Amino acid sequence: MTATFDHLALAGRRAWDNVIRYCFDLGATWLGGPTEPPEDFYFCHVGLAGGAKLEFLEPLPGPGSEFLRRFLHRNGPGPHHFTFKVPDLDVAIADVSAAGYDVTGVRRDNPEWQEAFLHPKQSHGIVIQLAQPSSDSDDWPPGTLLPPSRQNSVPELTMIKHLVADLPAAVELFTGPLHMTTVDEGDGPEGTYVELQQGPWRVKLIAPTPGPAAQWLANRPGRLLQLQLAVDKPALVPDLLPMENYDNTFVLSPEDNQGMRVLITGRK
To answer: Which of 26, 40, 74, 232 is most buried, judging by how many CB atoms fall within 10 Å of its CB?
Structure first.
């Protein structure tokens, strides 16, 4: 069985703020969302180059959004989970259980989307969702038309940086039952790292050395530090701050971007 990295979900109080940022400002492709009012919570998907996707989550008043309201109350807006699609949920649960992880939140009531989760205390600071869809199709019905983007083409996701307290254990999870591949490792400015890849997704797991990154991680098992995107025209993206000593490299701070730090570079 292969687990396929499908999307990164970002939680916010208004999903449309993220749509405007990632589609209009940064050039992501609108993929779609529910055309009927959802019962539990609102969600929508946008696409990046190579098939990577972002999901935006927004709580609604009903009880089905309680998990999102708790998350936003504790953490504020920001990264919520990684989703890995699997062809057989039972096999996926057996794989992660055999690797020593406890599975929670198993739901089989929707035949189009069966799911289970790894708690962030075990999965190194971010929820892992295992999902078995009814088919491989991600087609959405015709829906929202967005205004033209500021960019000429779809942005490229060049890296996700994720800080972890236990680097070997994190690597074991992502290269074991989650089927990512190690492509690089070494020591960098933030600490010892291992870079993993699967399809368009490249994840750098970092065990931070003493300093700002370690202070930001504090006593958590892990914490997603930043996304890195390459776009055509960084100068047209509002709220960017230039990075000192780096040409054509800018930062969207979490305070200006729904809790998600994004490093922006100009596409070469």
So the answer is: 26
d(CA 109, CA 114) in angstroms, rounded, equals: 7
pTM as predicted: 0.95
Say which CATH number the domain at 106 has.
3.10.180.10
Q: Which two tokens stand for residue 60?
A: 């609604």
Q: Which amino acid is at 131?
A: A
pLDDT digits (tens, 9 = 90+) for 233-244: 999 999 999 988
Same domain flag for 122 and 17: yes
The three-class DSSP label of residue 37 is coil
Q: Indicate the residue type of 62.
A: G
Report the C-alpha gap between 71 and 139 in whole angstroms: 29
Using DSSP, state whether 134 is helix, strand or coil.
coil
Could you give the CA distance from residue 58 to residue 52 in angstroms, rounded to a whole number? 20
Q: Are residues 198 and 113 in the same domain?
A: no
- Tell how strand 201-208 and strand 156-164 pair up: parallel
Our count of domains for the chain comes to: 2
Stretches where the chain sits below pLDDT 70 are 1, 136-139, 141-144
